[in-house]
Amino acid sequence: MGTKHLTEADRQRIRTLYFDGGKSKAEIHTTTTFSLNHIQTAMKVPSSQVAKSWRVPRWGTVQTRNRKLTHDTIVHHGR
């Protein structure tokens, strides 16, 4: 079972408790019930937002798709 993502406000709260409030990770965990991994990540990374996917599209670029469609059209109409 997974855990929920923290909102930007939650991450800011963790940073405030740790850096300005002087609380330890264990104290923040007890107070907020966030996991220790969430707390550690919120302190390390300035903004822990989900990164944009870098996956290559199925058809490739627009030029590749157009080239493939043109090639398929020529080959199949020649039958």
List the helices and strands and how they pair.
Elements: H1 8-20, H2 25-32, H3 36-44, H4 62-77
Helix pairs in contact: 1-3
Return the structural class.
mainly alpha
Q: What best-fitting shape do the alpha-carbon axes yield?
A: elongated
Which ranges are low-confidence, i.e. pLDDT below 50, for 5 or more consecutive residues?
none
Order of helices and strands: HHHH
**Helix percentage:** 55-70%
| Major sheet attributes | none
Strand percentage lies at under 5%
Q: What gyration radius follows from the Cα positions, in whole Å?
A: 24 Å
Topology, number of strands: 0
Mean pLDDT comes to: 76
The number of helical segments is 4
Task: For the structure shown, list the relevant keywords.
single chain, 79 residues, mainly alpha
What would your notes on this structure say?
With 79 residues, the chain is mainly alpha-helical. The chain has a domain at 1-48. The chain has four helices and no strands. The protein has helices at residues 8-20, 25-32, 36-44, 62-77.
